[in-house]
Give the backbone structure.
Amino acid sequence: MPELADDMIFVPGGTFNMGSNDHYPEEAPVREVQVDPFLIDSAPVTNRQFAEFVRATGYVTLAERPPNAEDYPGILPEMLHAGSLVFVPPASLDALAPNSWWHYVRGAQWRHPAGAGSTLDGLQDHPVVHIAYCDALAYAGWAGKSLPSEAQWEYACRAGRENTVYPWGDTRAPNGALMANYWHGAFPMHNTSPDGFMRTSPIQTYPPNSFGLYDMIGNVWEWTTDVFQSAAGSVGATCCAAPDQSSPHLERVMKGGSHLCADNYCRRYRPAARHPQPSDTSTSHLGFRCIKTLDAST
């Protein structure tokens, strides 16, 4: 097990108002939540860091393993190969149907983010992608850490700002400054990309939040341990119910939005935003970061 990385940030415990009443219905209602102190990675886990884990352990990610047909009744034969979901801009717009831009690409995995033949050249400090929930858990266990709960993640993202739309305020690009990696233009066909990144960007490209955390908004979605349910059903001292580990297909909460979030389609580049993701599904815009819990007296 490696030593605790120096790039973890201390997050003091406290009470905060979680969620939003002003955006997507699954974010409501706003409710008061208590969070104990913890440490959190200053940025998403990178390709460089994940490669170190794989070298040390020989770990094989879910996207690198062919699916078992018995686990997926009715699965199409062309999907019984190792691969993952990759965003491909559609040639034409089909009523905003996600299956027109998400493709199960054979050979797509963390080493080959766009599919067989693509590489990590120049991407060592980009967030690792094509990571299923079990892969994130495996890395966290090796690193002596764990994955954040939804409440821990949102508390860290807000960094003391409870009543603003974004971690930095209410304006997405204050004075024209680009604060995060998200889609610019009309999704899914036209990305003007003023920052030069059509997909992921290197960590620390954009300003950190007030806790010193990078890429809490945009770039890649991030796994949390919570089972997805309506926020109203999640009210409690620790926000969400303990996850049920019985099903590998269980939908869990991912947070933060990604480089594919756009003003005209998915305004989920906000602390309160949340979205379900099947635990056994990996994509080209989903990664993770880890935490380490501390005593409340720390």
